[in-house]
Design a protein that fits this description.
Layout (H helix, E strand, L loop, with lengths): L2 H11 L4 H8 L3 H8 L7 H11 L3 H5 L9 H10 L2 E3 L1 H27 L2 H12 L6 H29 L4 H5 L2 E3 L3 H28 L3 H6 L8 H37 L6 H30 L3 H4 L2 H21 L2
Parallel strand pairs: 1-2
């Protein structure tokens, strides 16, 4: 089998179009078309890069007598071992993207936390007589607002996820960095360290003191508007927690991008291998959590159902730890 046929077979085996393969190699789609049509031959650097992204040796690509099927087992092993090289340009683009996506993701999470606030306020005002509206009117305004805010958050999550495709290998696969990349990552991390510490501290403090408004509201227990004061306190708590979570999520995503380039912390090669195995568990877990949140919320507990998310976040770490322990057990 000649090189052109091997490129076609390996590209299709990975489910990539010519455009997708061209993007990964940093060439035009026309170049891929010429290679696959045996009208041109890629240079040595491109062949080396192809061997890395296809997970095969250069011998498999260059030796006509060596079939891909005969090297299947070798290819499977290389999938685990081959590290793709991250250039300075790719690293800079990745850090820029993570800075951009951190804000969008953080805003999306904040919108989810704030989504029931209007319904809580209107329903509480209608129930206490503070607002001259009916319970039906409060629900008629509040529930659509929940759907709008959650819909906006989902749109932010999806668009960010789709644009992250070209950088996903940095966080999920073994990588090697070109000369200068590690220095850039460490330099930017040091410059961000102060902001990271400040944002993380403020975010945690806001989440912790979020209960202060409710505590303060208890002082007005015997006043005429005590129930409405509690409602306002709940809304204030949601605002404080939402801002705190926004700061935590944004700063941690940016900080994590430096670790990903340096393959530190949760992005070591061992952790990446473990994370791939955890993916199925994580997908099922958060699907169940989301279903539980929506079920409890639509049964009339919008003012309390938000607590599911912080609890689920803590339990998720426990579930993953148990799963990894079971995998490692002889």
């Amino acid at each position: 089998m000649i090189l052109a046929d091997k490129i076609i077979e390996l590209r299709k085996k990975n489910g990539w179009s010519q455009e997708e393969l061209a993007e990964k190699l940093g060439v035009s789609r026309q170049s891929i078309s010429k290679w696959e049509g045996a009208q041109a031959i890629p240079d040595l650097d491109r062949i080396i890069t192809m061997s890395q992204i296809f997970g095969v040796s250069t011998d498999v690509l260059l030796k006509d007598e060596m079939e891909i099927s005969a090297a299947a087992q070798i290819g499977e092993d290389l999938d685990e071992q081959t590290a793709r090289v991250v250039t300075v340009e790719e690293a800079s683009d990745y850090l820029g993207f993570k800075n951009w996506s951190a804000g969008r993701t953080a805003i999306g999470v904040m919108l989810c936390i704030l989504s029931p606030m209007l319904l809580i306020f209107l329903s509480g005002g209608a129930e206490t007589g503070f607002l001259k509206i009916s319970d039906a009117a409060a629900a008629g305004i509040g529930v659509p607002m929940i759907l709008i805010l959650v819909g906006c958050a989902v749109a932010l999550f999806i668009t960010t996820y789709l644009r992250s495709e070209r950088f996903r290998y940095i966080e999920e696969e073994p990588i090697d960095t070109a000369y200068g990349v590690s220095g850039i990552a460490r330099d930017r991390r040091e410059r961000f360290r102060g902001a990271f510490g400040a944002q993380l501290t403020i975010g945690i403090v806001l989440c912790v003191i979020g209960a202060v408004p409710l505590t303060a509201a208890s002082l007005f227990h015997y006043s005429n508007n005590s129930d409405m004061i509690v409602v306002v306190a709940v809304c204030a708590m949601l605002v404080m927690i939402a801002i705190g979570v926004l700061l935590i999520v944004r700063s941690c995503i940016i900080w994590g991008s430096f670790k990903a380039l340096l393959e530190e912390g949760d992005y070591t090669r061992e952790e990446k291998s473990e994370s791939k195995r955890d993916g199925v568990i994580a997908g099922a877990y958060w699907l169940v959590v989301t279903a539980a949140y929506l079920a409890i919320s639509f049964l009339g507990s919008w003012n309390r159902s938000w607590i599911i998310w912080p609890i689920a976040g803590v339990l998720f770490a426990v579930v993953i730890s148990i799963a990894r322990a079971l995998r490692r057990r002889p």
